[in-house]
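Reply to dn_fold:

You asked what the input looked like. This is it:
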Amino acid sequence: MEPCDLDALEARRLIGSKALSPKELVASCIRRIETVDPAVNAMVARDFERASAAATKAEAAVMRGDPLGPLHGLPIGIKDLEDAEGLRSTYGSVLFKDHVPTKDHLIVQSVKQAGAIVLGKTNTPEWGAGANTRNAVYGVTGNPFSPDKSAAGSSGGSGVALATGMVPIATGSDTGGSLRNPAAYNGIVGFRPSPGVVPSDKRPLGWNPLSVLGPMARTVPDLCLLLSTMVSDNAVDPLATTIHGRAVRGAGDFLTLPEADLSNLKVALTPDFGFAPTERHIRDVFAKKCTTFRRVFAVADDTTPDCSGSDETFEVLRAVSFMASFYERFRDTPDLLGPNVRANVEEGLRYSALDVTQALKQQTVLYKRWQAFFERYDVILSPAVTLSPRPWTELFPTEIDGKPTRTYFHWLAMAYAVTVVGHPAISLPVGLDDHGMPFGLQIVGPRGGDAKVLAVAAALERYLAGSPVTARPRPDLARLAAMPALSQSPGFLGFD
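and this is what came back:
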């Protein structure tokens, strides 16, 4: 095993005990990127020189016996929607193709303060719009299990970098599933926290809970380690719950999880939340996976909260978010925006104040339905995504099982059902689907139940690890290393 293949917790333990050099770990990750990334195009802006210098300093700190942060010496990939000082940060937009920020976004500042070493930026669709990681700056990111297929998104670069051992931890963000979808497609773990748990300093609508920042990793314990360094009650984010003079949350909330006894849990199982356009193949795979673990729960009912109205609500509220972020760019430089961003702004311009009011009212109705549902159940289990990975040449699925989709993001309905009501959710890798591609199980918890979701995911991960049918799948790295560069593929750059 190469050092880059170590779990983050194990690598950090070895660094702390002087059994692994941060320099050795960073060098191993760099070698993996240089060997594998041409086939998948995940790590798009690289900071190897500064990372190597930081690793040298990190090693010196270990040898001096200095106090070490929880991420000390661990390489990290930063999604290219988050600014990292001195490193090209484009947001996947040609408008910012040469942008080099002079300071870090808060999430990057937090992981650096915890000792992480930024190795590079991971690819994302333009401004995170869409779940197929393609843009006109860096091109497409391919799935490590089949590079001609989608890696999902918008945190697709982070998902692929983790799956292939380029980094042990990575950042992501999520509106309609952008932490969960790429986790499912790449066989890793992605967690959407409750709004405000990970503070954001860049949301233009500070009180809008749709978009959150969060962690990605290869295992649940590794994810918890990273999450522990991101959480705070920072006043920069109005959604960060704060009681004056007292910290509400901290690292300990996620570093030491309660043990989840699966046999005491009441679980709801749903293939589609009653409305998501889920392909028959995914329904069948979900049913088969459930037979391997449903018996471990005290109750496992096939049921769902009433999610009627979720499509319309999410469509309006998502468009409002895009209007806040991109209206001026749409007005002034429409030709420099990709089709997904333009579609959202154009949709937003069609809505009235009454449309927005009705969407907000329906969001509240949905929220109340979910609270009543969680009086009877501890967690909900569902597929993370409505369909198996398809070729990345398809910008988005226009149909599922022969039925047309409503929008370019309709196929993400399994994820945005959860986004609308603000509950925490994780995507856990559970083997492969019938096409040989990773399958992600979404675990959804109650309002504010972030630690509960993570504890259940950790327990289920341990339970499933013993069988090749349900354990985390691994891509064939030797095959990827021998493949031609993805950049040679027709349609690699842009949206056509």
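The chain has one domain: 3-488.
Hope that clears it up.
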